[in-house]
Amino acid sequence: MARTRSYRELIAWQKAMKLAKAAYELAERLPRKEAFGLVAQIQRAAISVPSNIAEGHGRLTDLQFRHFLGTARGSLCEAQTQIELAHDLRYISADQLARFMEQGAEVARLINGLIMALGGAKGSAPASLTARSAANSANSAPKRLH
């Protein structure tokens, strides 16, 4: 896979940054008693997603990049779990949860596309990483909230 010059050009990173901002905004709604608990956990997990995409892009090999994309995907699942807990504790609404989960699902599809393009799945052809192909893959994949 030919690399972009900057991680900032990656749609997965751009969307992950928006997701991190959304997580921070949701975390601000949580009660003060959660400042060192759930709020801190949400913030750490959310910022880890674009950070790992960026760090992986800066590594020397596709294998290293894939490793960091896997870490980003794990952090995304962690952030989604924590936001779901915030909903279960009645700190955020069902609509807020659904919007976050939808954004997260889109980021997951983009990360998975990058992993596939880097040879992450046996027998898969490299995927184009343009804005158009990423938008098409995001629109064609089934939506999952959990």
Q: Can you tell me about this structure?
A:
The chain has 146 residues and is an all-alpha fold. The protein has one domain: Up-down Bundle (de novo design (two linked rop proteins)), CATH 1.20.1440. Helix content is 68%, strand content 0%. The protein contains 5 helices and no strands. It starts with 10 loop residues before the first helix and ends in a 6-residue tail after the last helix. The C terminus is likely disordered.
What is the element string, with H for helices and E for strands? HHHHH
- How much beta, percentage-wise? under 5%
- Residue windows where pLDDT falls under 50 for at least 5 positions: 122-146
* Spatial extent as radius of gyration: 16 Å
What is the global morphology? elongated
Strand segment tally: 0
* Distance between the amino and carboxyl termini: 30 Å
CATH C-level class is: Mainly Alpha
- The number of helices is 5
The second-level CATH architecture is Up-down Bundle
Average pLDDT: 86
Label this structure with key terms.
de novo design (two linked rop proteins), elongated, 5 helices, 146 residues
List the helices and strands and how they pair.
Blueprint: H1 11-27, H2 38-58, H3 62-88, H4 94-117, H5 131-140
Helix pairs in contact: 1-2, 1-4, 2-3, 3-4
Short description:
This protein has helices spanning 11-27, 38-58, 62-88, 94-117, 131-140. The chain is an all-alpha fold.
